[in-house]
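Worked example 2:
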Amino acid sequence: MLLARPPEPHDADLQDFLVWHVLRSTSRARPLSPGGHDGGVAVGDDDDGGTGGRRNPGPSAAARNRAALLAAARRLFDEVGADVPLSRLAAEAGVGQAVLYRVFPDRASAVWEVFGEDLTALEELAAAADLPVLLGEVTRSAVRSTGFLQVVAGHLDDTRLLDAGRRFAVALARCREGTAPARRPARDLTAADLGLAVQMVAGALVTTAREQRLEVARRAWDLLGVPVDLGRPAG
């Protein structure tokens, strides 16, 4: 059972961001609830974060804890949604409350860390792969994480979102320029056109059942005339 979250007037209203610009068309999703220290769990000075009294378990343990929290945040934001208590995130990751709040002081920082990791991976892929491969990974990410994308929808004015959108647009443009003509769309689509196409495909996935998302994405890209590497269709 999820723990109830008590009112917390000391928390600032969160201005979270939408995961890149692909879901500008899905602003009907729920906004994030304000407040960071949710889940009804008080974090005291005597909380050692599950380290048995050892305040500083070392960099290797800290890295493992952070990785576990990132994985739990990604999974629970997608499966449960915006209101999942951070205490549940800690339990899912197998860490104590002090560890949780050292890594993620509030809900916004958890969402931003997950997104930042994804965006960096896409930038690295864009530098090494061509356009169909990049768009394929963007699409698979949207297929896997539609729930997570909806968690942060509706915060279109956040400066972090705007910066992320610029970073993704730059990566997309560079990848397009480095793609062989035979692997580009038949029409001469600009990077801005491709960004809009990503929005359109991602928007279609929001209202599609999980088991049908990949096929819907494949059909959408075919209709747009954009080659995307999504693997062979089932059957």
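Residues 1-53 have pLDDT under 50 and may be disordered. The chain is about 55% helix and 0% strand.
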